[in-house]
Amino acid sequence: MRKNHRRRRRQGIVLVLFVLTLIALFSFLALAIDLGLVAMARTQCQAAADSAAMAGARALNGSSGNNYSSASPEAIESATNNSILGKQVTSAQTTINIGRYTYDTSTKQFEGEFPGPSTDNWTLVQAQVTANITGQLAFSKIFNFTPASITTYSTAVHRPRDIAVVMDFTGSMRFSSLTGAPYYGDRSSNNPDSNYPTWGAYSSASAGMQATTFTSPFDAANLTTTTTDGHPPVCADFYQDSSGTAAFTTASSTYATTPAGDAPLKTSKNTSSTYAQTLAQVLNIASPGNSTRDATYESSGYAAYSMTSGCSRYVQGPGYYGKTFFSWPPDPTNGSDGTTNDWRKRYFLYHGTNTAMDDNSKLWDGSGNWQQPGSSTYDINYTAILNWIKNIGPNPFPSTMRSGRIVYYTTIPSSINTSANPPTNLDERFWKDYIDYCLGLIDNNDGTWQTLVDGNTGLAGYGADYSWGTVKITAKSSLSGSPKPFMHYGDNPLRPKLHFWFGPLSMVDFLGNYNIWYNVNPSCSRYDWWPGTCHESPLYACKLGIQAALTDISNNHPNDMVSLIFFSTPRSDSSENDDTRFNRVRVGLGRSYSNMIESLWYPPSTVGNSSATVTPYDSNNIEVPRATGGTCYAYALMLAYNQFSANTTLTSYSTGQPAGDAGGNGRKGAQKIVIFETDGAPNTTATASFSNNGAYNSYYKVRYNYGSPSGSEFPSGINGYSNNDPSVVTPINSVCTQLAALDSASSPGYSTASKPLLIHCIGFGPYFDPSDPSAAANTATLNGMEVIGNVNDGMPSYKIINGNQTQMVSGLQQAFTKILQSGVQISLIQ
Length: 830
What we know:
Oligomer: single chain
Number of helices: 18
Largest sheet: 6 strands, mixed
Shape: elongated
Helix content: 10-25%
Radius of gyration: 39 Å
């Protein structure tokens, strides 16, 4: 029989187990606390590194040296503003490395390098922050757990952006500086200057010398006066030497009421207060006939009957008007030098002879219109006119004239050799062209002429000649009597406005007559000669604003690359000689900001060489940055596409210019931005084939070879339409769509999911003034481009720029600043 023994209970065992469990529990809790502190410390350490890297990167800019010396102190200061587990970070805990976020063209990737190629800007800051928190872990020592010091890294970079700045250089960018409006057909004055001739025929309301009302976009012109919107006079933009001595001076404003030289005669032998229209009115002859003759006037001229002291052979106007030899009636006498005072005889000849002209019917037709030279009319005595300009009365012209690296002439010649047409000597050619222009003519250089100004045509100056009194012209053969009168005393031709004036005003009109380019054959584009430095309005304000924007990009955005693109109407082949131009970008994608800024003002062949010059007759004169031509958005957008491409065949396509002139410098991974400025509505189309070579290797076939223009690729389909015509807008939107397509699309563009291509548009000038009836349509076209280009801002007010010159410059700067500061400029990549 088994005997059961009862085990004796062990007293206190539960307590022991409880204590042991509690110790383990508290140990794990302590360890968890310390591990939490370590995690917190690492987070705080990383935050310090991030702030240091960001602050250091922000300190880097585009100035000389990229502000390298400030980056490290800024980064350290930012790091030491942080704390790790309650203890402030010290500079000893922080290590800063500065490098470059460099694009590798072979791998087509951005890589951080220390220091990286010296040709790149400093654009990267790496911060290292170390924290030893062993002394702050209360429990880790018990378990012999002493974590190593915490080290965190952070790298911040300037995000790379490829930017195409597109500028409008079309004719409307000078409409507020036109001598007369409109820009096509017969003009009337667009000059608001109140300082103008009011004597003689100019006292007539038909003279129309001053404009008092203006229709957008033809604001008051700044030719001879500073306008109320702050644009200085164009006449002040020319110089007589390279040091900047003004070419022109202004004459007394008193000449507006009484000219210097020969004052117009009045009726009653110059004793009344009424200006005489004819010699008969001067001499109080009521009904002059073909044989009417006043012997006293014919022998004494203006000095007859004590009317004046005699003939001065010139009439000088106020301000910038200069002088004219046209006075009516002519003085038939000889001067003290024995030569005639009759300006018809002095400056015009019977055709093919040296016989002085004295037949009114050879100079004017029966309706009083000034005639062209020719076998049945007259020849021009250039030698006599040049002598008059230089030696009779004040000479309104400098001995040499230049502006904006264009040398217009080096001397005023004494004669012009017309055996070759045009003259081979460029000074003689220039002065022949100018004299012809002042006479209301263009020599076609083939034995024929075109009329710019007579009573029917008014393409120059303030427009067509006008009637003052009863028009009458009598042939010399019709005169009778013995002796015959020197002319019919009742003759009265149409009167000139700026026609026959020689001076700064007519010179500026001659150099920049956009109307001639528009209306006359293409060979006459030689008259589009304003320098890129003159105050074309609104272009001048636009240039100042863009210059400031380029300077801002250069100073503040060191990892941006910029291409500067101008547009008007492009050429369709290399043989064109009219004002089609801008088939190549001004400056290819890169950081050549000084060249970009010079390109705003100077001929491309002189950029980078301040002593270089061109003449008006140079073939590349047409590329001077002045406003002229139609408004073709599409071509400029195609150029922008090529600039963003990384296709290496584009890089070397254009010879004689920096690599990338035709494109190829685009960087994969850089955000693509188009900033498109225009002052008008699109009215010209252009198309070109698209070469699809895959992402970042495609391009439009509009590659221009600067060194061999004939080997270039030219657009087709260049046609003019009305503003915003669907035939123009559709191809614009098509190119915008191509630009903004995903880089993974079958026909690739430059957008990615994280970095879409952006098209920002800026409406600049009177066309976008809300008071203009067409402003809404013009804005709608730009807004449509923006929507396609991933910018859905509805064209905010800062992108619609109007006002005076100061306001427009400031507005453009503000627009660029807001555009370039939108989005993220500094990013953490580690």
